[in-house]
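Run log // design_07
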């Protein structure tokens, strides 16, 4: 049930980060204990960082608005990472089913040349989005670490700062306490970052592969007569399809079963990721707004602005990856209806099998009119329209924040 042994770089990369999050399939009890310990470590680290950032946010809320906005960006990102890992840990059995089904039905199926091009296109799209988002996420994490290093350069021990401010009377700036706390914060920061982006990568891969399977169903429906692999009878098959009603109907039934399996797979995907999608959409506009404020408006050092340049680009890429993959699923599942109508049903006589085939194709067309999609807990369907709505809301929030800052100054 392990899917690391594949030529798909997006799956191999995502599996590594999913293991670091602790949400991955275990092959034995020892490995399962390691997964549980990893989840506990990640949640504990998030709670520790939440305490640090939350306390600092409370004290600076009236002292420095720029620092307050900076902390709120961190709080929202931290909250999203914790929300994601808790949601997927709750649905881990269904998530593992999706992983196993991906390997058994999507990655190990027999495809002809055209179907292989569809799967290869899916792999390239997944690799592009996953690698792009992962690179910007790591650039953001590196910027968080480099900021205190650059600020501390040339300063005395008493003036050193940590990546995240810890309040109290402890001698945290003195050696070795400073170095220990610095290392702890960096380790927890990286785990939080991994939990923030790896689940989005996995959802993107699932959506793209499911959409590719719908395109394969379309191709098989449109080219049912090409399913006869007997070269001696292929010409006869193409010239006299009316004599092969039973064979056509058997092929149609196989395609319908595959279509039904894909619909059930998308329902499982909806069950696991619907709450995930709702939290994403609700928080994205706020994060992008606050990131934009840090880049354009806040009186902050250049290196801190660089943090949020990477964060803004990463969030925009994350939102596009999230909504575009969901939109592909909608479009490709809907297009099955057109492919069913394009099937060679008109070549068959109106005998028993010809009549049954036409009736079943009507049901396929009717079911395909209801697209498979990912919803935000049933409130709305996630698509590319969601991307434009979130970006528009983020710009509106930024305008209000800019007006408030202008009035106060």
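design_07 sequence
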């Amino acid at each position: 049930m392990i899917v690391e042994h594949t030529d798909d770089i997006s799956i191999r990369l995502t599996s590594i980060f999913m293991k670091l999050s602790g949400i991955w399939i275990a092959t034995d009890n020892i490995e399962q204990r390691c997964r549980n310990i990893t989840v506990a470590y990640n949640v504990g680290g998030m709670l520790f960082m939440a305490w640090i950032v939350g306390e600092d946010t409370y004290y600076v809320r009236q002292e420095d608005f720029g620092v307050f906005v900076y902390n709120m960006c961190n709080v929202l990102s931290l909250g999203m990472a914790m929300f994601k890992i808790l949601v997927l840990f709750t649905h881990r059995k269904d998530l593992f089913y999706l992983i196993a089904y991906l390997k058994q039905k999507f990655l190990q199926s027999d495809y002809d040349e055209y179907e292989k091009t569809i799967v290869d296109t899916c792999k390239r799209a997944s690799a592009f989005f996953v690698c792009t988002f992962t690179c910007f996420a790591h650039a953001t994490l590196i910027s968080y670490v480099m900021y205190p290093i650059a600020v501390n350069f040339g300063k005395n021990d008493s003036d050193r700062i940590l990546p995240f401010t810890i309040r109290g009377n402890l001698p945290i700036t003195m050696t070795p306490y400073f170095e220990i706390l610095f290392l702890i914060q960096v380790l927890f920061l990286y785990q939080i970052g991994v939990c923030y982006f790896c689940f989005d990568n996995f959802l993107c891969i699932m959506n793209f592969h499911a959409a590719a399977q719908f395109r394969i169903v379309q191709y098989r429906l449109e080219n049912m007569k090409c399913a006869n692999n007997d070269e001696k009878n292929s010409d006869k098959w193409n010239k006299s399809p009316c004599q092969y009603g039973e064979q056509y109907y058997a092929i149609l039934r196989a395609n319908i079963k595959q279509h039904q399996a894909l619909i059930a797979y998308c329902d499982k995907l909806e069950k696991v990721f619907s709450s995930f999608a709702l939290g994403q959409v609700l928080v994205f506009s706020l994060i992008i707004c606050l990131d934009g404020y840090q880049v354009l408006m806040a009186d902050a050092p250049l290196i801190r602005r660089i943090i949020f340049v990477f964060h803004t680009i990463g969030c925009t890429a994350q939102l596009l990856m999230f909504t575009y993959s969901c939109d592909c699923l909608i479009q490709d599942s809907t297009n099955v209806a057109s492919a069913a109508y394009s099937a060679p049903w008109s070549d068959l006589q109106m005998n028993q099998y010809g009549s049954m085939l036409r009736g079943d194709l009507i049901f396929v067309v009717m079911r395909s009119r209801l697209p498979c999609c990912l919803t935000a807990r049933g409130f709305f369907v996630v698509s590319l329209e969601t991307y434009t709505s979130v970006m528009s809301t983020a710009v509106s929030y930024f305008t209000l924040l800019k007006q408030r800052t202008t009035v106060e100054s």
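The mean pLDDT is 84.
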